[in-house]
Every structure is written in structure tokens, then in C-alpha cells.
Design brief:
The protein is of the alpha/beta class. Helix 3 links the parallel strand 3 and strand 4. The protein is globular, with a radius of gyration of 38 Å.
């Protein structure tokens, strides 16, 4: 291999014995590719030169080429480290060959870039992630969030977080960059099912289901790379997603929120001096949430194309009416009936309370049409199709037929 390397850069592997008097009339061209294939030594003519000086020059070039070839060989012989997949099964029924029965044991045995695969089962405890990692499981389709079927440990990867308040009630604590969680069901957390730390970024949460948690996700990631929460279901949690310690460069998109019954679907708060910045909250769907979103202490962010549907009252206690929203929040009149559209393509607009008669402007009363009288009757057939009102139908006989009467 070493001889091939020397031959590649244009140097004879047998040395420089040709730099002697017997070959002083020859020409040799030396090409050095050490700098990426661009450097070329010009043709060297040894005629009339001192053989010792010429030999010293070529020996120096040979030593440089040898060092470069050795470095190339070291790099080429280093075997790449491939990421491993660690299988987890709580009862060794769905995956009999799984070497781990708890998530924390698999995470502790993993290395940076590995994947922890959760077979269908019931898992618990607390998990702390301190290096880049992927966790995959099995979860229902998030699009069925409003009609979520009963969960089964024989079909889904269910993580029951501790049902206590405070730090002991956090299910998975993410203390690293480049962590991905996908297709996992989180249930019953007393504090939060998943928490991310402000010191780390590039967190990804996808296709997972959060149900019956005090808080689904404490989302605090910050950094130069974007973190994302996409295509998840937050079903009947106190609050779906909560941030308050400087969430930055985050995308919350295409999530389903249903029945957030204590706080809101999304709460962006400012619990420290750091504001939430550069967020995109878009194309989410909310149904039957007490409140869809509460946003405080957030700058340089976008909230757009979110759709809301719910059975609730406005702040006056009046039922709301459902209408489709155009961009900008204006109601689209003449929209299709509800049964002809997707049920989540409706948004909530408050129905204003009906005005009392004494609150109506006087000009509206002045614009009311006068009761019917004989003069209207005389004009029938002469440009008027019918009287405006018939106040005394018993006096006019058949004139009320097909007409509006009082």
C-alpha cells in the first residue's frame, strides 16, 4: 500500500538512485499531489548540477511524500463507527430477543447517535438523556386525537410518567442536543411528560401522543439550530405545550390539541428575564380546549393558520358560532355546511348578545316600513308587487294569501 501511495504521487518507491552520473542527462518530472492535486514541481534537469545537491533535494521530497502517504493510510484504515439500535421490551413478549426491559437501562447503555427502539409495552420511571439519541416506539395516529381509542400495551409503546408534582413528576428529561422522540405514548405525568433544557437545541418530537398529563411538554430548547414539535396529539392534558424560560428558534406545527382542561393548548410565558424568540406556531388544530393559546413575553415570532373548533362560550356566557376563517381572521360567508367540510376547518367567533329594544338606535326605528294602508293597496299593479305589511288581515280578506302579514 505504501509503494502504491508513492507511485500515486509520482515518486519511485525504490528511492532516488537515478540521481547519479550515469543518468545526469535525463529529465525527471515530479508531481506532488499533497496540496489537493494542484501543486506541481517543474521539470528538473540535472545536467551540470552537483549530484550531491540534487540527491539531497530529491531525498527531502521523498521524506515529505512518505509522511503524507502515512497520514493517508492512517485515515483510510480507521473503521467508521456505526450507530447501534437497542431494543427494549417490558415483558419480552412482543420482542423476545430484547436485551433491555426499561428505557433508562437502554439509554444508559447507548452511545451518541444510537437508537432506542421501544416494542409495544408499558414503561415507567424517569429517564434522563445526556447525549444525542433517538427513541422510537409505537403510537396511534395523531389525526385521531379527538376520538382517541383506548390505549393498549399490546399495541402501543406507553410511558407512564410519575404522577407526582415537581421535578419527580417529569418523565423524560432531555439534557443534550440532537435528541429525537417519535411514536411514543406519554400518560399520567404529575408535572410534565417530557422536558427540554434551555442549554440544548435541535430537539425533535414527532407522531407522539400525550394524554392525561398535567403538562404534556415543557419546551425550553434554545440555541442556533431549530427545535421542532410536529404532528403530535395532545389529548385531555392540563396544558399541552408550555414554555417559559427563553424558548428560541422553535417550530410548533401540525399538532392536534383536544380538551386541554386546565391551562390551554399552548402557553408561552416569561418566567425569567429571557424572552421567547423566533418561534413559528402554525397549522395546528384545536378542539374543545378551554383556551387554544396564551402568549406572553414572546417576540419576533409568527402565529398563523391555526384552526379552532370547540363547544364553549365566550366571555359573556353566550354560545359561539362556527365559521371558517380567511387569512387575517375575517369570517368567510357562504361557507359550506359543516357536514361537507372537515370538522376542524371551523373556527370560533363569538356571538354578540342580542340588543334590547331600548338599545337600538332611533334611526333604525325610523327606517322601519310603515304599516300597510289603502294607498299601498291603490298602487298594487302599478309598479308595486305587493303591500309591505298587512296589519289587519281580517279586514282585507284574501289579500294575505302568499303575503307577509302581521
Amino acid at each position: 500500500m505504501f509503494r502504491k501511495c508513492l507511485s500515486f504521487v509520482g515518486i519511485p518507491s525504490s528511492g532516488f538512485a537515478y540521481v547519479r552520473g550515469v543518468e545526469t542527462e535525463s529529465r525527471r518530472k515530479l508531481v506532488a499531489d499533497a496540496a489537493g492535486g494542484a501543486a506541481a514541481l517543474s521539470t528538473i534537469e540535472t545536467k551540470g548540477r552537483d549530484p550531491l545537491v540534487t540527491a539531497t533535494f530529491f531525498a527531502s521530497v521523498h521524506r515529505i511524500a512518505a509522511a503524507l502517504c502515512a497520514a493517508i493510510l492512517i485515515v483510510s484504515t480507521a473503521a467508521p463507527v456505526s450507530a447501534a439500535t437497542l431494543l427494549v421490551d417490558d415483558d419480552s413478549v412482543q420482542c423476545p430477543t430484547a436485551p433491555y426491559t426499561t428505557i433508562q437501562a437502554a439509554v444508559a447503555a447507548s452511545s451518541a447517535g444510537d437508537t432506542v427502539k421501544l416494542c409495544a409495552g408499558l414503561y415507567g420511571g424517569q429517564v434522563v438523556i445526556t447525549h444525542p439519541l433517538k427513541i422510537f416506539g409505537k403510537a396511534p395516529n395523531p389525526e385521531t386525537c379527538n376520538t382517541l381509542a383506548p390505549l393498549s400495551p399490546t399495541a402501543h409503546s406507553i410511558f407512564d410518567a410519575p404522577a407526582v408534582a415537581g421535578p419527580g413528576g417529569i418523565g423524560i428529561d432531555v439534557l443534550a442536543d440532537n435528541v429525537t422522540i417519535q411514536d411514543v405514548v406519554f400518560r399520567g405525568a404529575g408535572e410534565a411528560a417530557v422536558r427540554t433544557d434551555p442549554a440544548y437545541a435541535k430537539f425533535q418530537l414527532k407522531f407522539s401522543v400525550f394524554t392525561l398529563n398535567a403538562n404534556g411538554l415543557y419546551f425550553h430548547s434554545a440555541g442556533t439550530t431549530t427545535s421542532s414539535v410536529k404532528d403530535n396529539c395532545f389529548h385531555q392534558n392540563g396544558t399541552g405545550i408550555r414554555a417559559g424560560y427563553g424558548l428560541k428558534k422553535a417550530l410548533i406545527q401540525k399538532n392536534y390539541f383536544f380538551g386541554s382542561n386546565v391551562g390551554a393548548g399552548i402557553i408561552l410565558d416569561q418566567l425569567s428575564a429571557t424572552t421567547n424568540e423566533k418561534l413559528k406556531i402554525q397549522s395546528n388544530r384545536s378542539m374543545n380546549d378551554a383556551t387554544f393559546a396564551v402568549i406572553v413575553g414572546t417576540v419576533d415570532s409568527t402565529v398563523a393558520k391555526n384552526k379552532i373548533l370547540g363547544k364553549c362560550d365566550d366571555r359573556h356566557g353566550h354560545p359561539v358560532r362556527r365559521q371558517q376563517l380567511r387569512p387575517g381572521g375575517q369570517a368567510e360567508h357562504g361557507a359550506k355546511p359543516r357536514d361537507q367540510r372537515h370538522p376542524l376547518q371551523h373556527a370560533i367567533l363569538p356571538r354578540l348578545p342580542a340588543e334590547r329594544p331600548e338599545q337600538r338606535p332611533q334611526r333604525e326605528q325610523e327606517r322601519r316600513p310603515e304599516p300597510w294602508d289603502a294607498r299601498d293597496h291603490d298602487r298594487i299593479g302599478r309598479g308595486r308587487s305587493q303591500p309591505r305589511f298587512l296589519t289587519r288581515p281580517e279586514e282585507h280578506g284574501d289579500q294575505c294569501r302568499g303575503r307577509r302579514c302581521r
